[in-house]
Write a structure and sequence with these properties.
- The protein has 15 helices and 20 strands.
- Helix 4 links the parallel strand 8 and strand 9.
- Helix 9 crosses helix 14.
- The two termini are 26 Å apart.
- It is α/β, with parallel strands linked by helices.
- It is globular, with a radius of gyration of 24 Å.
- The longest helix has 20 residues.
- The protein is 30% helix and 26% strand.
- It has 2 domains: 325 residues, Aminopeptidase (3-Layer(aba) Sandwich), CATH 3.40.630.10; 201 residues, Glucose Oxidase, domain 1.
- The strands form 3 sheets. The chain has a 16-stranded mixed beta sheet that branches. A two-stranded antiparallel ribbon has the order 6-7.
Amino acid sequence: MACSSSRVDEAALSITESSLMEHIETLSSDEFMGRGTGTEGEEMTVDYLVSQLKEMGTESGVEDGSYIQSFPLLGQKTKNAKLSITRSPGNSTLNRFNYFDDFVAWPANEAEAVNVQNAELVYVGYGIQAPEENWDDFKGVDVKGKVIVVKNNDPEYDPDLFEGTARLYYGRHTYKFEKAKEMGAIGAVIIHTTPTAGYGWNVVSNSWSRERFYVKSAEGADKGATEFNSWMTYEASKIMFERAGLNLDELLEAADSPDFEPVPLNNTGMTLSLEADYRDIQSKNVIATIEGSDPELKDEYLVLTAHFDHLGITSPIDGDDINNGAEDNAAGVSAVLNLMQAYKSIQPEMKRSVMALLVGAEEVGLLGSQYWGENPTVHPGKVTANINLDGMNVYGETEDVVIVGYGRNTMGDLVRMEADKVGRPVKPDPRPEQGIFYRSDHFNMAKVGIPAIFPNPGTVFVDKPEGWEEVIDSVSAANYHAVNDEVNEYWDLKGAVKDSRLFFKAGFRALNAEELQSWKPGDEFEATRLKMLEDVE
């Protein structure tokens, strides 16, 4: 049965400023203690979400009926890290480097200690293998048992390669480390430069020297041959290359060619020792579903994601130590809850089913969505698309809307179709060089082939004073990951309402479309999507 336009409009109108603010104020209150991963605040948040989803009449998206998908995490902290470049053969020390100032490193296999002696070093350019770009930096060279040294980012010199200056997953540090594991390298070193990273060494050293979090491997799982991952400063890397008689600048430039071949750092080796402390943490995802009405399509899903965690309690600033996370991401969670309530009201006319996947541990590495991607409650080949809501427009109505991932898959086209009806321009990510597509939970959906989009606030405000855009940029920057991310005098939820209604209607299109949504031909996730679809045939 087709749902009339008036019914869809009526359901969309149920999303209001007050219905959004109700959940935002609750979740961002001091009572929830900043919703930190593995804390009492997380437990309270999960209880609240489950109660709200039950109350609106959704079903559990977990087999045991609990609405909760629990997953184990490891907290890891490096200590006593020492790194030196050695002469090979002979193993005499050529240079010693200082942890934090020159390098950061950590175990890649959950080991309590790493002890690598005089390991061979091979520079592999960007370390990319991308068949769709006819690009292979390894050229068949065996790096098993060796340390690969990698240039950060992906090639930017040609607009027809790797989408020009847009940073793809190939340019992310996670890809480099995953590729090292895949190729059997004993370790990986990413050469840091500010232009190729997009941030200074202080960001690397501060981020990677603190406690890091991972989804804990299953008992007996193969953790791979890679023993450590690391970053090294440009200055330290230059010394390392000079010891091998190589010019780092020339080789960084040489990587910008599909004809590049790996370069061994002859007569030099790397010796690295470090220890790590661990602690076990338990985190949770909350999953609810609304079943579609079509007997043949109801086992296919539209997945709505939003992360409910934030930073918890940290060092006090002006007496305030609670990171309330109102914009990031109580607003996104509230939007998903409102969308689910609206879909429930038109459930009989929905052909496919819809799933709310409210994930934990996003702030410590997108780990809740990673766990779901590795342990999906619905096969990815049965998911038509993902809309990820991470930070809503809480500062007023905008003429436009930004979609990170726009143009990459047909889900973005459905948003445009709905936006066209009301004269709203849909714009792509204005800063693709920052790789934002790979920095929120939709990325883990894309990694398993699901066509995913990440809506962002528009940029052209309606009925706001001149210079409002600059004011809001400043407010958002000041509030981001800070104790003052709270509802304040700048908030105006008209924009969040307008956007939520748009995503509701676009999602309804996906639920009732004849075909599943897809990646555009040549996209980096297209091959995985096709494989997932084959798996369920």
